Each structure stands twice: as C-alpha cells, then as structure tokens.
Amino acid sequence: MKRLSMAICVLVLFLAVTIQAQTTSKSIEEELIKLENQWSDAMVKMDLAFLDRHVSDEYVEWSPYGSSMTKADLIASLKSGDLKVLSMAVDDIKARVYADTAVVTGRTILKEMFKGMESSGRYRWTDIWVKMAGRWQCVAAHASQVAPE
Question: Which domains does the chain have, with CATH numbers?
Fold first, then answer.
C-alpha cells in the first residue's frame, strides 16, 4: 500500500511539474509575441528607448537585398531621418523557446521611406532572441520579401 501511495504521489508531482513547464513556456511565447508587436510600434513611433533596451548591442539584421545593419546603424538611420517607418503591421507570429533562446517567425506588411525612396512590401522574417540581464533582447534578424497574396 505504501508503494502504491508513493507511486501516486510521484505521478501527481510529475504531472504538476509538466503542466507548470507548459504554462511557463506558453507565457514566454506570449511575452515574445508582445515584444515583436511592441517593436513594430516602436519603429513607427521612433521609440529609440524600446530599441535600445530590446535590441542587443551585438544585433545584426540581414535585409532581403543582402545588406546588413547593426543596432548602431538602425538607431542612427532612425535618428537622422534616413529611415522613416510609415506603417508596420505584423501577424502570423510564432515563438519557439529553447531555454534562454527563442526563435520567432512572422509576417510583416511594411511601408517605409529610406533615404527619400519608398521601400514597401510584404516580408517573412525570423528573429533570434536571447534572455540576457533578465530581459529578452533580439540578437539577429533576417527578412525575405514575398509576393503579395
């Protein structure tokens, strides 16, 4: 009888830990999706404080055209007015969490001006986030332009 009671206790404990882990993972995914939406808003509103806090100093972004941009490049282009994001709508966001690292994918419909020329379109993207110093920071990004649907 003691063995059965012990086995039931272990099973209940195992199920509780599993449910807690799933709930925690789900809340982290929701946090990352929220950060992606906030990033989109920050680009339109030129919220440099958000970018400074959530974009890693080691950040590198690869554009659909093969060029790269660092965090410093991104912030400088926004400050100078070279880059003006007129609208940025993100959807179809999915987050996959691996301990303190996450891969987030999604779709963006973007309208922007870069050095006076319109640069708009639909993109599929991947962002890599790492939890550092107690907060999620994006360390890398890549976007590919897709045909209009």
Answer: 2-146 (3.10.450.50)
